[in-house]
Amino acid sequence: MQTAIVVGLAxxxxxxxGCSSVPKDAKTVTVSLDKIDCSDCGDEIVADLRTRxxxxxxxxxxxxxxxxxVASPEMDVYTAVKQLAATEGFSAVLGEGKGKxxxxxTFPDGSDAKTVVEDGRDVPDLATLAVKGKTTVVDFSAIWxxxxxxxxxxxxxxxTANTDIAYRRLDIADWDSPLAQHYLKDVPQLPYVVxxxxxxxxxxxxxxVDLERLDKAIAKAKTP
Length: 224
Fold this sequence. Notes:
By secondary structure, the protein is an alpha/beta fold. 31% of the residues lie in helices and 27% in strands. It has six helices and ten strands; from the N terminus they run H-E-H-E-E-H-E-E-E-E-H-E-H-E-E-H. A hairpin with a 5-residue loop joins strand 9 and strand 10. The protein is elongated. The N and C termini lie far apart (65 Å).
């Protein structure tokens, strides 16, 4: 029903659905999402907006956590996005440059946990991240990846109980980043975790959230 309304309105206004042309009086509004926990949330809001009369285009920039909407002058874009965001448990702020994801978990003081890549830049040799004399967990993740937070939360517990484990996090930024293109061409989803033993030899690589397998890999890596 809503789709039919959108199509009808589009034809009345003289442009084709799916075409890049829009009425000359169309406005572009950018709304930032604050404390969002995953990119799927932004995609869901965009999907809803696209069904609404008066919306000609909508897109979500997952790196910046921003929604961009092209709509008729009568369409109250900000209120619509604000209401949709509220149902998901986060806030919307009018304007660009204000989008923000939830903060990552805090690791215990003294633990060997570092984010070594934040912008998707490449690491020529992944094995160089293995810390000599420690079991090393290398985690390919992204700030916009909700399942990745489960690995972070689990590693907080692991590092609290173990001082001989190093955690190295790599934020891929996006699937087309140099880091992702190098290591994740055959990896269907995040997180992707690689575990090295104290000699720097790879013990296991794990796709997705499999905490039991991760714990087993860590135990194996610690075994002389």
